[in-house]
Amino acid sequence: MREGDSIGQFRRRTGFAAWNRYAAVNSEFVPIHMDHEAGRAAGMPGAFGMGNLQVAYLHCLLRQWLEEQDRSGRVGGLSVQFRSPDTGGEVTATGEITQVGAERVEIALTVLDQEQQRLATGTATVELDH
Fold this sequence. Notes:
24% of the residues are buried. The two termini are 15 Å apart. The longest helix has 18 residues, at 51-68. The chain has a 5-stranded antiparallel β-sheet. The protein is of the alpha+beta class and 130 residues long. The chain has helices spanning 16-26, 31-34, 36-41, 51-68; strands at residues 6-14, 73-82, 89-100, 104-112, 118-128. It has a domain at 6-14 and 48-128: Thiol Ester Dehydrase, Chain A, CATH 3.10.129. It is elongated. This is MaoC-like domain-containing protein. Residues 19-90 form the MaoC-like domain.
């Protein structure tokens, strides 16, 4: 594990089915995520995915990476900035190690859509167990 290393990818297909499942689990039935007319009324091309679902995908990416490293640890900090709405399709969460310490790893994060447009960027601190 070194600075500049990729931590892999976490991919999911998004759209009404994924948004509806996420809304059901989180009691987040917001019209802009369920109805194209409501999304358009909010200035978007139609309904769009929840930002917190992208955050969940980033958490999945980080947990997947820890498992692949055969390490245990926890996400000690996560910061995300949303850049564009998820309007459905394939979403890919990626990360690159920016700093490695004895007990923690800093990671730059990105969520991309199928056209490689940035949906979100962020950083994470992963605190490693010994």
